[in-house]
TrEMBL record:
CDD domains for the chain: EAL
Organism, scientific name: Shewanella decolorationis S12
Pfam families to which the protein is assigned, alphabetical: EAL, GGDEF
Keyword Transmembrane helix applies: yes
Domain spans labelled GGDEF: 246-380
Upper classification of the organism: Bacteria, Pseudomonadati, Pseudomonadota, Gammaproteobacteria, Alteromonadales
PROSITE patterns in alphabetical order: EAL, GGDEF
The protein's name in its UniProt record: Regulatory protein
Length: 631
């Protein structure tokens, strides 16, 4: 923009100067030509006066006609008073003649009238003159072109500085830092680069500080896993007033003689044993999504694994105890075969959290009473029969539901601080052959195990696009969840790209949600796919934020437009100052960005009021509305 303005001004100035010079030259040439003609007329007057004074007989016929012929005179008359002394009529025809009436002698009344053609009327331009004019014009054009190119090159550096400044004002700091270019003045360009680097470091430091706050709030300082507060938050998120929302198992692992080991071997031996045990258990839990591992007390740990059957819970208990017993203990530790004990309690949807912990504790005491290191499952005879029927039955059910299109969208509104609906989140529900709804906590884990989530979520996106094409939904905005298997599927990615291109007029009304733990673990692989979705015009949202203790710098790197706080952070937020501290830190880290913060699982007015005070702009949950089927 600057180059265009300056070069335009420069060219207009050159054109104006050239026009003035050309006009001046033409005017000077015209004036000089007229003056030359007038000079010849004056010479003729002088000759006539001289002859009149010296030669009374005149003899004009002998010398005056050749001179008038040389002047290309159209007409000439010499009179004294009213008497014509001499008349001449030339053979030159002209329309715009120059007439000179001059009084030669006032005493005798001698005067002359001379008619001459315009000075340029009979003038023709020769090829030599045209050649000179052409060479001059070409030289001027060449010099102007050279000046324009040179001027543009000198201003390119300023243009690059302007482009970097525009990126900074748009908040694209990473892009501005990645394109330093050859901006001039170089001092300003280097200063911008240095400030952007320091700003990037500040953002990273802020992310590390946020993680530090979360770590000291929710992590055990010695083992770096969740503490008791973290466990309570996660259990609250997995339940509501009616009890647990899904089925699964909880384990309580206790090291009986850990205090004795600390007294005899010191803090370093205890720390080494704890780190080895925790790392071994984490390696097993990595394959179990949404599992929870926390330290309840000095020698007791809690493990919660949702969406597993009773048979899988038994197998997992044996595996956990096996890796614990494989840890080397000091030789002088008494009762090495009676060091680890594991209590297990299987739960189903609707079970009370406190009762569940009591059952796990009773199972732990039963395991300790058996004498050796072992595990014990609390059996209350309440196994989810639907889930225990096996994966073969579930695969058949899910494949039939896909063919018969028995997956239906349920929506829950997301409300902003003004009470206006921002968008609606789509939840997937299935119906069996009798038309009864199947709980998502049942079929989604099995769909993940069977590898059918890409087909289910593709069908759901097709339904959402069909809704947006209808007149009653034309202004609605929907958010759709994408799982890891779906995003990693090449066939789904290609289909989604083609579909978004086909429905590019509807993509601004779509928001795609991805879970935080997926983004953290697979950021490098997911970033190109997320960038593709964003470039197609859709928005990106990361949900379940706060479920894990991780840094938040990935929000900027992946260019998310929205984040959703996990319900474990939102639950009883008005009673938990440590959760309020985390939200304040998170929102402070997103300062000067356009990332919107939303809260999931708001159930009471006090929670929503506290979230608004903290700066959260949107929320969803049963306080506003339950999920309802979209017609």
């Amino acid at each position: 923009m600057l180059t265009t303005k300056l070069t335009s001004f420069w060219l207009m100035s050159l054109a104006a100067i050239a026009f003035v010079f050309l006009l001046s030259a033409m005017m000077s040439f015209v004036q000089l030509t007229y003056k030359f003609q007038q000079q010849k007329v004056s010479e003729l007057e002088s000759l006539l006066i001289e002859h009149y004074q010296t030669q009374p007989d005149w003899e004009l016929e002998s010398w005056l006609p050749p001179m008038l012929l040389a002047y290309n005179a159209v007409e000439f008359r010499l009179t004294m008073k009213s008497e014509v002394l001499f008349a001449y009529q030339g053979n030159v025809n002209t329309q715009n003649a120059m007439v000179y009436n001059h009084l030669l002698d006032p005493k005798s009344g001698l005067s002359m009238t001379l008619t001459l053609p315009q000075p340029f009327e009979h003038y023709s331009v020769s090829w030599y003159e045209l050649l000179i004019l052409g060479v001059g014009l070409l030289a001027v054009i060449a010099l102007v072109r050279f000046g324009h190119v040179w001027f543009s090159q000198q201003l390119d550096g300023i243009e690059e500085l302007a482009e970097r400044s525009r990126l900074i004002l748009q908040g694209k700091h990473e892009q501005a830092l990645a394109s330093p270019g050859n901006g001039k003045p170089r001092l300003i360009n280097r200063a911008l680069t240095k400030l952007l680097e320091e700003l990037q470091d500040a953002h990273k430091e802020r992310g590390r500080f946020d993680k530090f706050i979360r770590s000291n709030t929710f992590l055990d300082a010695q083992t770096r896993i969740g503490n008791r507060l973290f466990l309570n938050n996660r259990l609250d998120a997995m339940s509501h007033d009616q009890g647990m929302v899904a089925h699964g198992v909880i384990y309580l692992l206790e090291m009986d003689d850990l205090d004795l080991l600390q007294q005899t071997k010191g803090e370093s031996a205890v720390k080494e044993l704890l780190h080895a045990t925790v790392n071994s258990i984490n390696s097993i839990l990595q394959t179990l999504p949404n599992s929870i591992f926390a330290r309840r007390s000095h020698n007791q740990f809690a493990i919660v694994v949702p969406h597993v059957s009773l048979i899988e819970a038994d197998q997992l208990a044996s595996k956990l105890l096996k890796v614990c017993l494989s840890q080397p203990l000091p030789n002088d530790v008494e009762n090495q075969d009676n060091f680890y004990h594991l209590g297990c309690a299987y739960f189903t949807a609707g079970d009370n959290v406190n009762q569940l912990l009591d059952e796990a504790d009773m199972a732990l005491r039963a395991a300790q009473l058996q004498g050796n290191s072992n595990w014990f499952m609390y059996d209350k005879g309440a196994i989810d029969e639907e889930f225990a029927k096996g994966s073969v039955r579930w695969r058949s059910f899910l494949e039939n539901a896909l063919v018969q299109r028995r997956f239906y969208p349920f929506s829950q509104p997301v409300i902003d601080s003004d009470g206006v609906e921002h968008h609606k989140e789509i939840f997937t529900r299935a119906r069996d052959n009798q038309g009864a709804l199947v709980r998502a906590t049942l079929f989604i884990p099995m769909a993940n195990k069977c590898g059918l989530m890409p087909q289910i979520e593709r069908q759901m996106i097709e339904r959402v696009l069909g809704l947006l094409a209808k007149e009653q939904h034309k202004d609605q905005v929907y958010s759709v969840n994408l799982s890891l298997d779906t995003l990693m599927s090449r066939a789904f990615t290609q289909w989604l790209k083609t579909t978004l291109l086909e429905y590019r007029h509807l993509t601004p009304q779509l928001i795609f949600e991805v879970s935080e733990d997926i983004v953290i673990q697979h950021q490098d692989k997911l970033k190109p796919k997320l960038d593709m979705i964003r470039k197609m015009g859709a928005r990106l949202c990361v949900d379940h934020v706060g479920q894990q203790v991780v840094g938040t710098y990935y929000i900027r790197e992946c260019h998310f437009d929205m984040i959703k706080l996990h319900r474990s952070i939102v639950r009883h937020i008005h009673l938990r100052p440590e959760n309020q501290l985390f939200i304040r830190s998170l929102i402070g880290g997103l300062y000067r960005t356009e990332v919107q913060v939303c809260a999931e699982g708001v159930e009471v007015f006090e929670e929503w009021q506290t979230l608004q005070i903290l700066g959260v702009g949107m929320a969803q949950g049963m306080y506003f509305s339950d999920p309802i089927e979209v017609q």
